[in-house]
Amino acid sequence: MRALLALLLLVTPAAAQEWRPERPVTIINPYATGSSTDAIARALAEAFSPDLGQTVVVVSRDGASGVVGMRSLAAAAPDGLTLAFSPLVPLVVQPHLVRNTGLGPEAVSPVCNVTENILGVMVRADSPWKTLPEMVSAARQRPLTYGSPGPNSAPFLGVHRIQVAAGGQWTHAPFRGDAASLTEVLAGRLDFAAIVVASGVPMARAGQTRLIAVFSERRHPEFPDVPTAREQGVDALQPSYAALFAPRGVPAPILDRLQLACERAMQSEGFRLIAQRWGVVPDFRPRAELATRLAGEYAAIGRTLRELGVTPE
Question: 211, 208, 217, 216: which is closest to 193 by C-alpha?
């Protein structure tokens, strides 16, 4: 009997037992402190701590549109103790723009998709345009100026898709983040802002701005009466997601345990309240599905940037 038990112990892999971290876990936020990305990362960390039985801390390592933080993740030990919560941009956009980032779908291990960062077009509350077709009609008469988080950012690509689908003249002004372009819209120096809709929720709630379209396949729950671009007859789809990642090479049982912790965290009341406060749309997807999405987005963005004549610098 003892020999049988010993044999079973030998053939049962240790990794099959539930993984628990032996030291504190770090979640990297590759964007600015105080952003919606930072807030969601902290909501995940708060739920992870009791689930994993270890302190989980969030550190901000922003710069280069998320590249700095995600390169830190890629260089970390593959032990499950270092994670990053980030939009897909540093992995699917930046490698097409900058040579030798060391990033891309193969540089990380997907853990789970967490949110959809629904993108959209926001105008000042007193703007004459109530719909996207009205704005497009105006852009056919004169150039419209707009702000986005930067050239080839996801919101910028959304406006590019409007131009491809419906024509018009569009003059771009890049900004660092969404808040600056929204401020310029309020001041009347820009016609509209192309943004992550969550960034504009406070201004819209205050009656200062108005959302007229989103680039998602679904409406933003904060603005259920605002149709998508496609619903308004303009085929401008530009999805944007944010997810939890680990370094490449983390063993599958650890990734499975982290995925479970992520799913549980997103079901918590604390996470729900933070997502609602920031106007963020929860969108849990398991790591296998996230890996497929990551590869698909990388290929699609590459095609779009080539259409724009963009080559890596």
Answer: 211
Distances from the Cα of 150 to the Cαs of 93, 193, 267, in angstroms? Answer: 12, 11, 33
Query: Tokens 């890596």 map to which residue?
Result: 312
Report pTM: 0.83
Tokens coding 92 = 């699917």
Helix-helix angle 252-266:36-52, to 10 degrees = 110
Domains and CATH numbers, the chain: 21-116+241-307 (3.40.190.150), 119-232 (3.40.190.10)
Query: E strands within 149-263?
Result: 170-174, 192-196, 209-214, 241-247
pLDDT digits (tens, 9 = 90+) for 253-296: 999 999 999 999 999 999 999 998 888 899 999 999 999 999 99
How open is the CA angle 65-66-69, to the nearest 5 degrees?
145
pLDDT tier, 84 (very low <50, low <70, confident <90, very high otherwise): very high
